[in-house]
Amino acid sequence: MTAELVRGQNHPLSQVRLEIRVSAGTPIVAAAALSDEAGRIHGVEGVAHPGAPTQPGLEVSRQAAADHRLAVDLDAMPETVHRVSVLLALPVGGAGPVRFGAVAAPYVAVTGLDGAEIASYTITGLDAESAVVALELYRRQGAWKVRAVGQGYAGGLAELLTDQGLPQAQQLAGSINDAVAQGLARSVQAAPPRTADGDRSRQAAAPALGPDQGGTAPQPGPIPPMSPYGGQPSGGPASGGQGQPPGYPGAAADPSAVTQPAGPTAGGGPIDYSHPRRRNAAPPPPPPTAPPAAPGQPAQPVAGDATGWSMEERLYNQVWGMFEDLARTTAAYRSAVDFAESRMDKELEQVLSDPRSRIGGQGDAAREAARARYAQLVDRAREALDRDLAQLKAEADVVEPALPPAYARWDNPVWHAYRVPMEIPMALRLGDLHLPEADRIRIPMLVRLPLERGLWIDSGRTESSEGLFTDAHALGRLAMETAVAHAARLLAVHPAGEFTVHVIDPAGSGAQPLAPLVHSGVLAGPPARGAAGVTDVLTRLTQRVDLVQMAVRGGAADSLPPGFDTSQQLLIVNDFPHGFDDRAVNQLRYLADEGPAFGVHLMMVADREESSGYGPLLDPLWRSLLRLTPVPDDHLADPWVGHAWTYEPTLVPPGSEVLQQVLAQVAAARTKYS
Predict the structure, then answer these.
(1) Which residues, 6+ apart, have CB-to-CB distance to 255 below 8 Å?
(2) What is the mean pLDDT of residues 637-659?
(3) φ, ψ for residue 246 (rounded to 5)?
């Protein structure tokens, strides 16, 4: 039975090999500190963090994520270690929240390797704090216990580590933040919270662990439609039951809290005809378009079965629900396999440590039995995973054909009926994501519009491209074709005149891939060439950002000069850093940092190694951009569990004329609009 701790309460630990599971509604940083009896850390080597994720008996996550699993082996702890403190912090320097009071209360659980919870703690009462000591494992008279701490620090990790007695607190906090920034640069940004996710009709995934493993308690997480760690939570949102503590972010909202339009009163009072605004009311549930499933059978998937005010919004929420479901069910499978391996290792170790097992065939029989139990557990976990994957595959098969152009691949027939839209869509598809355990399922990678981060199309070699491209120029050309496909999609999903594209191609090396954009006439002007062209375009766009920034911050957004182009601007930069001096590099960094908030977006096509001559000057630039690749590469991470997902760009099929047809309609609409 799980011990639900409150601040200051402790609980004995009966196991030495543990997992500490952290769940929050937003990406957070998880670390752990090893300290002495007085609670002092004696050096940076006593802290496990994303930049140094392993220490003796301890391993933490390598990046910021909404869910974390920390592995702890108390028997492997040095004798000088008397406390293991679990530290949580909000990432700095990003667009996320800066204080814990603005997010759902983090939930921390200490579990055995079988997933069974030993103790849990919901960290409530935080406000301005940006870092917190969640709990600590400590020795007492030769035994280990866990204590709920919940001590927060408004000064972040630096203040927390200083309070722990670490002399190099400031330097270590800086290195942790740098490591997290690099991880966030490769992370897919989480979708905004869904307001009524409980309306999704998805079946709950079955637990991957078998009943002989003690079962698993439901794993709380950010806005989950279901949990792969044991099905639906048993505790209600008000009960604070096991697996779903108070403040659990996935709990259903109180129906009484939803603002509804006032109806006629008994006395014939006035009727309120005001629109139920999205901030005050949940969106309507999806229409029941599928017949109910037969008893014992999974529900038939339906495109648009998530909540939303339009089919586009419902499909967007459904895609993100599929993304989260696949991340969590894969995490459950991997956890089950890890448990099976650790159990087999322990059993084999016991066999080898017993001298009697070395006589006769007892040792061989014990080893075979351990391997058989391992295979049984893995097979059972795989059966559960395959069942969940089959349901997700069926859902993907009905969702993909129903996607609108902004969400669809270039080979989707919806593009043949393309017309220039009248409204800007919610999001844009930049590619597909998949995991090795579910290679047949492709999840659309959707990013919200307007873009919050610039894009970097990496034209350098990756591990997956080593055998595909012997010529660096071929990879560079494919990177430019990928950039053109993304730019064409951005132009296609915006109304006429609402999106403008500029191109900088200093040496003219991208002339052939850029031909569809140039010949269709959708560019704001011919691609800029040479140092003079680079200077001209960058100067005009930085001045534009300065002007809009001053107008917005001065409260005079309506006082822009007559004829000022208010459309969103995209700058494509090819072959960086060729043709760029120090001033141009600084202007690029300015556009990457300040441009998205004021309607100017950056798309870089570059090999990072080629820009190494600038030293650390460009590191903030690369970290501020979302890295995409022209070939499949497993460099992106989800915001829940942190899996390494393989990204594949959405390219125009060879021989297809769909890109030219779409750009021709965009150009015609722009001519008519102007």
Answers:
(1) none
(2) 90
(3) -60, 140
pLDDT given for residue 365 in this prediction = 83
Q: How deeply is 590 buried, as exposed, middle or buried, from its count of CB atoms within 10 A (0-12, 13-18, 19+)? A: middle
Tokens 């409260």 sit on residue: 555
pLDDT of 241 reads 35
Distance from C-alpha of 335 to C-alpha of 341, rounded to nearest angstrom: 10
- CA 255/CA 253 separation, integer angstroms: 6
Give phi and psi for 286, each to the nearest 5. Answer: -65, 150
Paired strand residues for 648: 432
Closest CA to 651 of 468, 487, 448: 487
Q: Is 90 exceeded by the pLDDT of residue 278?
A: no
Q: How many residues does the chain have?
A: 674
Q: What angle do CA 96, 97, 103 make, to 5 degrees?
A: 125
Residue type, 655: G
* Cβ-contact 580, 534 below 8 angstroms: yes
Q: Are strands 131-140 and 3-5 parallel, antiparallel or unpaired?
A: unpaired
Q: What are phi and psi of 414, to 5 degrees?
A: -60, -25
Type of residue numbered 59: E
Cα 106 from Cα 124, distance rounded (Å):
8
Residue 287's pLDDT is 61
Instruction: Say which amino acid occupies 669.
Output: A
Tell me how crowded residue 40 is: count the other CB atoms within 10 A of its CB: 14
Residue 412 has pLDDT above 50, yes or no: yes
Q: What are phi and psi of 313, to 5 degrees?
A: -70, -35
Q: How many whole angstroms from its chain centre is CA 641? A: 8
User: What pLDDT does residue 269 have?
Assistant: 45
- pLDDT surpassing 80 at residue 283: no
Q: Which two tokens stand for residue 83?
A: 């406390």
Containing 171, the helix (H) or strand (E) segment is: helix 169-184
Question: 3-state class of 160 per DSSP?
Answer: helix
Identity of the amino acid at 2: T
Coil/strand/helix, residue 409: coil
pLDDT of 51: 86
Q: Can you tell me the distance from the alpha carbon of 74 to that of 146, in angstroms, rounded to the nearest whole number?
A: 12
Neighbours of 101 (CB within 10 A): 14
Q: Residue 472 — pLDDT band, cuts 50, 70, 90?
A: confident
Helix/strand/coil for 342: helix
**Per-residue pLDDT reduced to its tens digit, 312-370:** 999 999 999 999 899 989 988 988 888 888 888 888 887 777 776 666 677 788 888 88
> DSSP state, 611?
G
Query: What's the count of helices (H) and strands (E) in the chain, helices before strands?
Result: 10, 21
328, 641 in Cβ contact below 8 A? yes
Provide the pLDDT for residue 357: 63
Confidence of residue 610 (pLDDT cuts 50, 70, 90): confident
Dihedral over Cα of 497, 576, 187, 642: its sign: positive
* CA-closest candidate to residue 94, choices 620, 641, 634: 620
Q: What is residue 164's predicted lDDT score, i.e. its pLDDT?
A: 87
Beta bridge partners of 20: 70, 110
Calculate the alpha carbon distances from 231 to 191, 219, 319, 506 in Å. Answer: 23, 9, 20, 56
| Tokens of residue 424, six digits | 């800007």
List 651's β-bridge partners, or say none: none
User: Are 323 and 443 a contacting pair, CB within 8 Å?
Assistant: yes
On the question of pLDDT at 56 being above 80, the answer is yes
Rg of the chain over CA atoms, in angstroms?
27
Q: What average pLDDT does this structure show over 580-584? A: 89
